[in-house]
Write a structure and sequence with these properties.
The structure holds 2 protein chains of 2 kinds.
Chain A lengths: L8 H9 L18 H14 L10 H7 L3 E2 L16
Chain B lengths: L11 E8 L6 H16 L5 E4 L7 E6 L15 E5 L8 E4 L4 E2 L6 E2 H13 L26 H11 L21 E2 L14 E5 L2 E6 L2 E5 L4 E2 L4 E2 H4 L9 E5 L4 E6 L2 E6 L2 E2 L5 E2 H4 L9 E4 L6 E5 L2 E5 L13 E2 L12 E4 L5 E5 L2 E6 L4 E2 L8 E2 H5 L9 H5 L1
Parallel strand pairs in B: 1-2, 1-3, 3-5, 6-7
Antiparallel strand pairs in B: 4-5, 8-12, 9-10, 10-11, 11-13, 14-15, 15-16, 16-17, 16-18, 19-20, 20-21, 21-22, 23-24, 24-25, 25-26, 25-27
The chains are: A mainly alpha, B alpha+beta.
């Protein structure tokens, strides 16, 4: 099942807020600019991090974990690949 | 665990609570936050000193909504708090709209959330180990909170092990006072004993047989056992086939026939049991043994003369090249009773009153004196006069 990009703005905001989607979704219109592939990839990243079944789909289990109270610090804070390397 | 990339250069850190929550006694907040800092100082040489005036390393504030850092709080639920890594100042902010509580199942436990946030203040990012303190999700009040091994490794990788203090044992396990051991349990000390399952959960090793279970100590069986499975793990039937605890989410999985049961601690998760064919696609019914192998973190299932490797992150989770013959595990027999990844890192296989210690580095059953297989009674259950299994296991 393919997720519909604009169907769940809350989930997209969540994925953006915690570092899974590289987009600023404080502007609601920017959801239109996110490709389906990017969204699926973000959902998969979140599912992998939360130890859920990796489906790429916003299933009930994923929604349930996203609704849990949590820390406001991003889960993804930049990867080693993006970091400046020491010689 | 994950590190953000910055840390404090000094180990004597200071903090101040510059804004307190409404409707909570200041003295209680002071005590809980000091306790939360102590979670980290217990395993390192870090010290945390409250300071009433002047500059401090970590400023702690309770605030509502927008509070000046561009990252507003969202009211009750949702995000509870946030904190800044050392490179950004280390400050910790808590949402004052939450109902902060102490030692209560109601509201949100301040101690646990603060200990988590202070982990960020010290340089730790979120961990993907669900049972760790640095996992991002709040799981409710834990009356027997203990810092997870994942968190200990994380903080010690930044600040060392704290040589000046009396630290935890060298083994990966964090132990409390040694438990009283009862020798010569009549059921376990029968020769040729066939056990159903054995697994380690929260640093304790449990053995299941029929409708009973035993807790194992370092050198035998803990006092007060056996107990009935139905009293210890409500909802779980007797005579299970296999069990393991998955360290990545801290949950224990039990297998019986075509079904499996998932437990968080001693509580069965909602919606269980489920069919093995649904949750563990590619794994057959009525398995003999299951464990997580330290060599790669994957889950292995054994049945008759074959084994299956299950990788939850792969599609399909069991490759088409499985099952494979158990003979691939040099020295391990067919038709096992149970298997276990023990706290010392070795994998142990059990069959008909004997056990085999598998060396995950040489990928073979260890050659040792006395050789494997050995009788489980004296080495695992404290039977007869032999001095427990401890000495043998440590070789």
């Amino acid at each position: 099942a393919a997720p519909v990009v604009n169907s769940d703005p809350q989930a997209m905001f969540y994925l953006s807020q915690f570092g899974y989607l590289n987009a600023n979704l404080k502007n609601p219109g920017s959801g239109n600019l996110i490709s389906e592939d990017a969204l699926i990839s973000a959902i998969k990243d979140f599912q992998a991090f939360a130890q859920l079944n990796i489906t790429g789909v916003m299933d009930d289990e994923t929604k349930e974990v996203m609704s849990m109270p949590r820390c406001g610090v991003r889960d993804k804070i930049g990867t080693a690949g993006r970091a400046r390397r020491r010689r | 665990y994950a590190l953000q990339g910055s840390r404090w250069r000094v180990k004597a850190l200071t903090y101040r609570i510059s804004s307190y929550p409404r409707n909570v006694k200041r003295s209680e907040v002071d005590a809980e936050l000091a306790r939360a800092f102590n979670v980290w100082s217990e395993y390192t040489d870090l010290t945390f000193t409250p300071k009433a005036s002047g500059q401090v390393h970590i400023d702690v504030r309770f605030a509502r909504g927008e509070h000046g850092d561009g990252d507003p709080f969202d009211g009750p639920g949702g995000t509870l708090a946030h904190a800044y890594f050392p490179v950004y100042g280390g400050d910790a902010h808590f949402d004052d709209a939450e109902s902060w509580t102490f030692r209560s199942y109601r509201g949100t436990n301040l101690f646990q959330v603060a200990a988590h946030e202070f982990g960020h203040s010290l340089g730790l990012s979120h961990s993907d180990v669900r049972a760790s303190l640095m996992a991002p999700f709040y799981r409710g009040y834990d009356s027997s909170f203990k810092l997870h091994e994942d968190d200990i490794q994380a903080i010690q990788s930044l600040y060392g092990t704290g040589k000046s203090k009396n630290k935890r044992p060298a083994s990966a396990q964090v132990t409390e006072a040694p438990e009283k051991t009862i020798p010569n349990d009549p059921e376990l000390c029968r020769s040729g004993i066939k056990i159903d399952a054995i697994f380690t959960e929260s640093s304790s090793t449990y053995l299941f047989k029929g409708d009973s279970y035993w807790k194992l100590t370092e050198d035998g069986v803990a006092a007060g056992y056996p107990r009935s499975i139905s009293s210890g793990w409500p909802g779980l039937p007797g005579s299970i086939d296999a069990a393991f605890t998955y360290s990545k989410n801290g949950r224990t999985y039990f297998f019986k026939g075509s079904q499996y049961y998932r437990f968080s601690g001693k509580t069965m998760d909602d919606g269980y049991p489920k069919m093995i064919s649904d949750g563990f696609q590619g794994i057959p019914s009525s398995v003999d043994a299951a464990f997580v192998w330290s060599g790669n973190g994957k889950i292995y299932f054994f049945k008759d003369g074959q084994f299956y490797r299950f990788d939850p992150t792969a599609k399909p989770p069991v490759k088409s090249t499985y099952p494979k013959p158990i003979a691939n595990w040099a020295g391990v027999p067919d038709n096992l009773d149970a298997a276990l990844q023990y706290t010392n890192g070795y994998t142990y296989f059990f069959k008909g009153g004997q056990y085999y210690r598998f060396n995950d580095r040489t990928f073979a059953v260890d050659s040792a004196d006395p050789p494997f297989p050995r009788a489980v009674g004296p080495w695992w259950f404290g039977c007869n006069t032999m001095n427990g299994r401890g000495s043998g296991m440590m070789q």
